[in-house]
């Protein structure tokens, strides 16, 4: 059984051994804290990317070789890490309904709809973030709300995934869907059951998808079929999680960031601990949150 | 939160109603029907340039139709600039009570845009309502009238029936007192948790669409510095000087599309998308902002041009420096010869003295920055009238101003507020007034078939000018032939408001449908092959025409088209162009979006200094500094010249306290700052006539053979000659040192023998400072211009600029002299400081500020606020430390480098007794600010 850790380019993510316990994943503040004359503090935060100082005590030569190739930049970029300690594989900006940057960057719409970010005083209890995407459909045509950046697609590693989302709005039928991509970019869509939204109560929509063998990545989609009246849908709390084992049952929303793009190689070292066994240290840097 | 206006999407008209002398108070009654509301801003519609300031506004609580009480905190001055809805934002929100009637009042000094019958029978006859905000109908208003109006010299409760007309006032009310006062961005700048955002766009190929234009993702460090650098000591509260801005960026990493920044911008290698491209000077903008609960909000900080790009291979970073657009204002400037005649100055004072606006506008136009419309590309003559009568294109003669005949009623300044927020020539209809300005075109004009001439100008005319019936005045006359009686194009105006377009006395009148206001008028004369001339009129954006027979040419074509521009009506932006065809569509100069904001300024010039091929920006700086104005490009890249009263230091834009953003602060006071004697030195100069503007220096100069000889004669600075003058021959016996003009002619071979006939000598102005001397020698001898005794003898008469003695004045503070000893601050002499009167208020204000020692504030480090700009007033609260001080910001160095930091330099605002101590009750020392 694999450890749940994967590392590699999309389409070629490789299961890697679990690193040593006690891993400190630190978030570095891009920004600073300033202190006024009487001590009041102001926090300036551009972003807070993570770093993973991964370490293994006894790797086989195969694993050690792969990790060293990664560290040398000889494995195709961009690299993606799947961190099993972080359930939600979507980036934070998507998972939080745009609340990370308080804008619609990394979001895209089709079907003549537009998106904006709004502050929320009553987010879904299970996804208590400061705001949501306000998705305006000005016509009755079909429309989708999804991610704009192909680099934000979740890498598929052959395991079933489940996409879930919180939404509310005027009473129209909405569905969660997953767009699955091949390495060549061909796409197929799996749409979940529709649910009718409510103006004030949050509805939880979900869809499960079992990857076909040629599918390498997946994008979350909120979709409205044609014929639904023009409306505004407010949505937040997006999540794509691996969902193939009974132990993974809890599917509550979490913050996101489980499949970041990482940079490797700024620090690594290898210690020969005994015959054909390697102690290995590799620092992974999150490229962007 | 909700903001409401009566007219969120409705524009007013261009129709203009004139107020009487002293102006009028106009009003609007409004109420909120339910809920808790606060007044946020007051508005007035400006549909035509005739509506001028100052316009004080206030809100009154209605007691009865004729009595009301002023709502405290609502009295504001409207910034009358540009067309459209004007806004005066209240310093703080003022609460109002639901169900209570309020009247918004405004004092308009000249007039207001209006729609008659609006409330009684028009769109407002059932009232105007937007949510909880409403303005009742005529009948439902207090006293049975909405929108009051009455002549008044100052703002007061609007209490007189306005007869159902509307004056297009509006109000913004808000239901959210917490956030509505400040923008979401300003609120976010005070939050403890901040997420800075930046947008930097470099338009590499000036296309507006370069794929690498947005470099924001690669910015690792950004510094914008905007500073006001003036000529006064740091303790003076006046904000004056030159505004300069610089942007410095460090770029690294990747752009949004994944392009490596360093390899893209290292433009000397072939892989760069900018390989060898001419990127220097490319437009650069920088915005800074913060994430707010209304999304990311950015505020423009800088607009300028790329000056330097440095690549560093070691760190793989790119450093970029950009400067504000002043960098591009570098055209060489030669000022025209212009000055007031001494006779006019003595008779009518400074009526035609030239304000700062005239010079600054002239320099900007030479750099293709147009506050008012550019002249026709093939203009022969152009005169803006923005505070002078000098020609922008072509050449102007000496202004012919008959001071004694100016009627008392018209004896004010020669300039009035005109279109595009620029000065215009103030006209007077009175028959005794004979003020005009002559111009000369660049080229001659022969009025034959296949040619055409156009005249365009902004003129204040209309069908209700209140003038004696039947009277007519020429406005602009063109003389293409030497004999002015033989041919003349003319654009004139009848007292009833009809335009007249004539050739000699033949032509048509075209009535104007609108009331008197600023409008573009034009006429085009098209000389056709059928012996007819088609006269086209342009007014109210429509063109009409009629044909007349073209007169025969009975005189020689003049070397330059001559023009007389009469000053019977207010006018500006006058130009004449040659084009055989009439303009298609809009006429040249008819519409324009101002590209600069140029205040009139307080300085007055009797003459233009001797400026030849000087750098544009130097001229602008010196000219502005002479009156301690504020000059530069604002953060949107728009040029501004503001007079020294434009910055209002009494409104505190931001409070920065030690428990939030204030990082460090220090003060320093020394006796060095004390100045108790302020001296000024000014030198005026006036044109004098008659004066010798040119004299031969040697007997051999201009010695001419038989035939026609021409000589180019440079004239000294300030000298203006007649357009063409024939010099009279003087008998040798009567030639003296005092003879102002003429010549003595002797035989070159026998210089004791006079030539008494056959010689004509003319002097013709060819350009500013250049004349042509033509000798037509049809005597039988080569001629020499000398007396028989061998003295040079050829002189021309004209106007010469003669300096008055320098005038020095001083103001002193005896108490301070007693205490600290005499300490002088001279306001130095400058070619731009010519009259004492404009400087006196400055001297007085300086004395009030400097006669006691004032501490200067060190550079202050505070948390960055993208909304804070130079010219704003900040309150710095160091409770328990230095105390609470106020300063006007003269320099901001804003850095985004992890943190968003502002380093502020401020000028102290002097309270009457406490130096810079913050004293809201008695605010700033206003002697400096209220000047002049």
Summed up, what is this model?
Chain A is mainly beta.
Task: Describe the overall structure.
The complex is a heterodimer of chains A (289) and B (932). Chain A has helices spanning 61-71, 92-95; strands at 5-9, 14-16, 26-27, 30-35, 41-47, 50-59, 79-82, 107-110, 114-119, 131-137, 143-147, 154-155, 161-169, 173-182, 187-196, 203-209, 215-224, 231-242, 261-274, 277-286. With 289 residues, chain A is mostly beta strands. Chain A starts with a strand and ends with a strand. With 932 residues, chain B is mainly beta. Helices cover 7% and strands 42% of the residues of chain B. Chain B contains eight helices and 64 strands. In chain B, the strands form 14 sheets. Chain B has a 15-stranded mixed sheet that branches. In chain B, strands 3, 5, 6, 7, 9, 11, 12 and 13 form an eight-stranded antiparallel sheet that branches. Chain B has a seven-stranded antiparallel sheet with strand order 25-28-37-30-31-32-33, with no helix packed on it. In chain B, a hairpin with a 7-residue loop joins strand 30 and strand 31 (489-494). In chain B, helix 4 (356-366) runs antiparallel to helix 5 (616-625). Chain B starts with a strand and ends with a helix. The relative contact order of chain B is 0.11. Strand 5 (41-47) of chain A pairs parallel with strand 15 (193-194) of chain B.
- Structural class given helices, strands, pairing of chain A? mainly beta
Q: What do the pLDDT scores of chain B average to?
A: 88
Low-pLDDT regions of chain A: none
β-strand number of chain B? 64
Question: Main β-sheet of chain B, in a few words?
Answer: 15 strands, mixed
**What is the share of helical residues of chain A?**
under 10%
Task: Give the distance, in angstroms, between the N- and C-terminal Cα atoms of chain A.
Answer: 29 Å
Strand content of chain A: over 45%
Total DSSP helices of chain B:
8
Helix content of chain B: under 10%
